[in-house]
Amino acid sequence: MDFALFSLILGVLSIIYSGFAFFRVIREDEGNQKMREISHYIRRGADAFLRREMEAVLAATVVLAILILAAIGWQNALSFVVGSLSSAFAGYLGMQTSVRANVRTASRALKSGIKGAFDIAFTGGTIMGTFAIGIALIGISSLYMVFRTPLDIIGYMFGASLISLLVRVGGGIFTKGADIGADLVGKVEAGIPEDDPRNPGVIADNVGDNVGDCAGMGADLFETYAVTLITAMLLGYLLEPIREALGTMAVTLPLMIGGIAVIATIVSIPFVKLRNPKRIMGAFYNGLIISSIVAIALNAILIYGAGGLETAIVSKAGLMVSIIAGVLVMASMYAFAEYFTSGSYGPVKRIAQRSQTGPAINIISGISSGLFSSTFPVIIIAVAIIAVLLANGGLYYPSVGFYSGVYAVGIAATSMMSMAGMVISVDTFGPITDNAGGIAEMAGLPKEVRDNATDPLDAVGNTTKATTKAYAIASAGLAALSLFIAFVLELPPSELDSLQIFNPLVLVGLFIGAVVPFLFTSRLMEAVDYAAFSMVNEIRRQFREFGILEGKGNPDYEACVDIATRASLKKLLVPALIAAGLPLVVGFLLGPTALSGYMFGAIASGVPTAVWMTTGGAAWDNSKKVIESGLYGGKGSDAHKAAVVGDTVGDAVKDTAGPAVNPLIKVIMTVSVLFAPMIVLIHLL
Question: Which of 465, 450, 580 lies closest to 94, judged by CA?
Fold first, then answer.
């Protein structure tokens, strides 16, 4: 069986399913005239921002494609363009899905309550979930069938990662600049409800949910899936003993494991039904459990049914341990993230309680919880790596088993992608319900719609977004480690001898790489600061000059959308240069030895940095929702105002800086692997 061709067919099937889900959502009623009008405002703002952002993205794609063509070759230049366009299209579809599903979710909430709203929001999520894995499988399988070597599709990884970073960063700056400005002036200063139509920033805030959480996360998870698959393919090709033992299956097996995600997702979708409104996460766990069981079963059939996978250095049992380890990492990351971000557990409840003393202790408590949470994913990843290496006889280097162990780590990362479709579907649910609640408030729907339907769904949506980010970060850690090994395997033997921890160049690179996530996130936090500062001043100006709160004038929504758009695009260049430019500077100046240390330092500091930011920020957000449910004085109380301040701090770290570290790590790894042959030939030291 040609695994590449079969994966291509599965990719087409996934796209077809995505189309059916899209038309199912579109058939739903958009609600009354006011709801449709608000939805039109949001859609128009999102389209305007994404159009301007994509112009910048496409310009960068053209310039870099020419550079890669001249420096590397036409094969990787073509792969880069395909990966870039696929990533951009994944983000675009995510946004288009959300801006159509949001108003229909609000309409269903009005007509049939929380269960109907849940159904439409999750169906909207499945559009993105099945499309992202489908387009990745089609692109990777097609390029491999043309070139027949993964070395010529490294450009696809770089293109997917770079565009994901640009879309994620641009959308993150937009959404949090708007969100923070609207919350601080509206809820804290003016004392009006969240998503009150009198707030000039409210449309920009809802636009931000789409361009940041949907377009940004859509592109992010697409590149996570694509990079993980290609990385495992690279290991199968570059590890010569593995390639000799397994033949072409060493390269195509990861493609097939990734393709299983299509079947696992489509089979598990019908099991995601909300039966108990008090156990919304339970409905998602049903889908994730079924998806995991199907993935393990199909992978077992694949491993034990395929001939040629039992050799002197590769065992079917060892590969199955890798498959199961990947699934267990995914389950562990979900459990850990839910504990630290859900309002049902201690960390969030403690932050809510501390809010009674004011915003300072709320913020201290949130930082404490976030920093503490970062230890667990690192331990989970470390235990998984050791277990996989032990099962495949590769814990010690040099040994024959080392090669099978390294390859098995790549397979474990790919195994995590077997549930990618369901994970993406659950993630996209969050911003859809968030927008639905905003539309319900702005359209003046009965209070019960928010209290009994959209607000509970939105609170769970915050948790699902945090769990998805934890999943993406864990897979990024495993994939980045595999990419690091792929980079090392591309080096000549003379360079391998210098890769010792006591080599000064390795240590210098390690220190520089370790500080890069801090430099990168600092620029993103400053960008949100800039956007939010401008937004706060604009909303204050409109309240003061238009007399909006007194009923004398109407808000100018478009002015706020324009401010957020200009701020995000203005601040996009520096983070992109840090991600893609610094590895090349280190490589060409200090050489591949220092670059290897740089890569490892970025992984080691980037993973815990991303985790504490995403979980800590989500905990701040949900502590606010705990208070809004009636505890500690409820909405409008001093505790609530303190929690709103904490939430605004959390907005910047959980939705802009933290999640962007994931594509940052991938960009560092992929650009290093892509330019490794040239860096080996041309470097100063």
Answer: 465
